[in-house]
Fold this sequence. Notes:
The protein is of the alpha+beta class and 172 residues long. The protein has one domain (36-169): 2-Layer Sandwich (TATA-Binding Protein), CATH 3.30.310. The protein is built from 3 helices and 6 strands, in the order αββαββββα. The chain has helices at residues 2-21, 87-99, 155-169; strands at 64-66, 81-82, 104-109, 113-119, 126-133, 139-146. The relative contact order is 0.19.
Amino acid sequence: MQLFRLFSSLLVSVFAVFIVTGSSAMAAPVATLPGLQGVFTGTPPTDIGIHDTQLSGCPPSPNCVSSAAANDDDEHYIAPLDYTAEPGAVRDKLVAILENQPRTNVIEQTDDYILVEFTSRLMGFVDDAEFYFLPDGHTVAMRSAARLGESDLGVNRRRLEQFRLALQSLGA
């Protein structure tokens, strides 16, 4: 009971800070609860990247989406990004979109591959996302997965779909 009181008063304090400061999207890079900084970051995965000209699929847990998953795997499959513009221009637009996201780090960027880390605002959970420009010249394979936990409540899928819409609105 005493732990509950401590935790609830801590949450009230944190929310009061957000209300007083205006909690904009471009606020502090990561506003984790006091004492939790780095607790939920997890270890960067070692099995990501391009393997046999494609990105990795997903583990059985529902906290991952990948265009390399089987089409009939509704939980994990996400359609790749299709584009009609020049690949370099699409990559530049995608990088600009990514760099404009709060609490986002572009970790690696080549002509055909982008690796990004997203950190959640309150708890500091880290998700890893990858974008691979396929040799066909009009498709971007994508994958996004939470490092920790079982469920991400659909965050990775929604994030990638928002990037799809942003690229479409920019004429990619």
